[in-house]
Amino acid sequence: MYPLAEHVCLFDIDGTLLNSGGAGQWAMEQALEEVFGVTGPYEDIPAAGRTDRAITVDLFAHHGLDYSESNLEPFQAAYFRHLPAALAGRDGRVLPGIYDVIAALHRQEQLELGLLTGNYRIGAELKLKHYQLHEPFTFGAFGDEHLDRDDVARLAYAEACRTLNREVHPQQVWVIGDTPADIRCGRAIGARVIAVATGLYSYPQLAAARPDHLFHDFSKSAELLTLFH
Ligand SMILES: [Mg+2]
After folding, report:
1. pTM for the model
2. Of 25, 38, 50, 185, which has fewest CB within 10 angstroms of its CB?
């Protein structure tokens, strides 16, 4: 029998758990160059808070490439191949307090940890494994299939119910992320939202998007943990 989780935490990855030092973007650029022989810059294509599928659609459109299986498949394969070296070579890091927070949440039996990320599933796994952060997360929803983060949130909510084998009340679900898109997607599923200003968006910018709770970072982990009692 599964222990009844009273809370489900859905964590974003980039800007929330870790900063890959641009490894993801670099690996995508390497993949575009290797597979299609095209190069950037790509400053006009935003990435924060978006799904990898949406970013890929924009990158392909930028170069006039068809968004087809025959283009997507080799691109993804090259991206996943370049990502580990990019993670090892770039100046990435796990964000302040995250190891402590995740370990503390993981110890709580009444709490289930999942992922709600725009990353491709394999990309997410590579990033988390590189930083030894993958283990506590028992389920997740990823950016492979959807353009809109709200749809990834709906998928994450369904996965939470499936994993716990019961209907989880949306107010027992917490979405934790670093962009206004994270806050919006949390609202889309009726969840509570915790924003953290460790990504591209400043504290005031996130405050304007009205999360339930807002942190500069998670270095004082106790403050975050008190929310789940
Ligand atoms: Mg993020």
Report:
1. 0.95
2. 38
